[in-house]
Amino acid sequence: MVFDAAYAANPTCMPNRASLLTGRYPSSHGARVNGIGLSPGSETVARVLRRRGYRTGAAGKLHLQPYGAAEEATRSLVGAAPAAVAVAGGGEPGWDRWEMTATHRSGPVELPPDYYGFDRVDLVIGGSDTAEGHYRHWLCDRGVEPERVQGRDNALAAFDGWDQVYKTAVPEDLYPTSYIADRTVRFLEEAAAAGDDFFFWASFPDPHHPFTPPGRYFDRFDPADVVIPPTFGDPLTRAPAHVRAMAARRGVQTRPFDCWAPDERQLRASLAAAYGMIAMIDDAAGRIMAALDRTGLAERTAVVFTSDHGDMFGDHGLLLKHCVHYQACIRVPFVVGAPGAPAGRTGALTSSLDLAPTVLGLAGAEPYRDLHGTDLSGAVTGRAPAGPGRDGLLVEEDEVFGLPGLPGPVRMRTLITPSARLTVYGGQPFGEMYDRRGDPCELENLHGRPDARRLQQELSDLLLAKVMDAQDSDPVPRFAA
User: Does the domain at residues 2-76+94-469 carry the CATH identifier 3.40.720.10?
Assistant: First the structure.
């Protein structure tokens, strides 16, 4: 079943990865922004299945805890912390340092036996050819010094228009995508030999900047042949000020992780390299599916394919993500297959929050309290209709930093309905509203226009209702007073 209208709960790495695993909004599970770890006691789909006797594992980018990158820069953005906090969270000291690069550089790291519900984890920290974690030690065990092959300084070829596009010197069979596929196949073979039920998360960091596909994948696509999005030339006349500020600096990225406006040459090179990354993931996924067939597991295994977020990739003339909720950033693939289930597709609104309850439904497990997602297992197996479903979806985003035209900290809330998109910015007078049926490319911002006042009020009321629905009802009281 292909869900064509699937959206991230938050179009940022850590918040949405935690939402995929917990089925809860970032404002509830607590990992609201990159750099805040998911509480170690959080209920997850992996933990539920582990208690039911499933073998659980993961390979690749979990990013449920911070990497420790740019700690000083982040502290300068947040400012001095108060002496006391309103709510104390987390666990034992050091609980949120299991995925920090510094921790893994000091030597091989054995994770806790129940890491968010996973029995075994082979971590890839970061992404592209600069990845670290358990992957780094695997690379060293094969006689490869990461410092001699990783990064642009060691690149076999490099694009001269942006430092985030180059051909890595890491060989194809030692690239992180290959490592993740190897680890996944090994897990499947072991589960098949033992006859275990299992839940496994194979998590590829690519496609993500820097765009560094190895070997034949770097040249697989010609930049001259890639298709530029039809909205690349959007004049952005009524776009929010921070988006117009990006366009005014076209061709120049000011901070390495911010959304920015590339020129056409930069975009073409980035697209071609990213397509190479995707082609490699396609081949790796083919290896995994072949392993399911070879081991006989395919007859009793459901497979989900999704992503943590999108990337602008030229849509509206922009690249990367953060503080933009155009379709390219918030819409994600969501495909679920199960043995004996009919193939099909639906335009019903779907969220990353739906993964956890859907997997529990396919496994016959009871859901836990305060799951914000919907169990789609009936739609997948054909027991229930796939639509029309929700009247609207909530998308959250918080950022500790600001951008020119958008002071920080940033708080955005978006409502997606079958016919419209409304985005509000906390503390700001501007917003965005688009007619998704009459203007599917989101070129005409209707927010604040007198002739669209009634629609804006209706969407605002529905957005408020969705925000209230996302509030926790857990824990429940044990006593009357």
Answer: yes
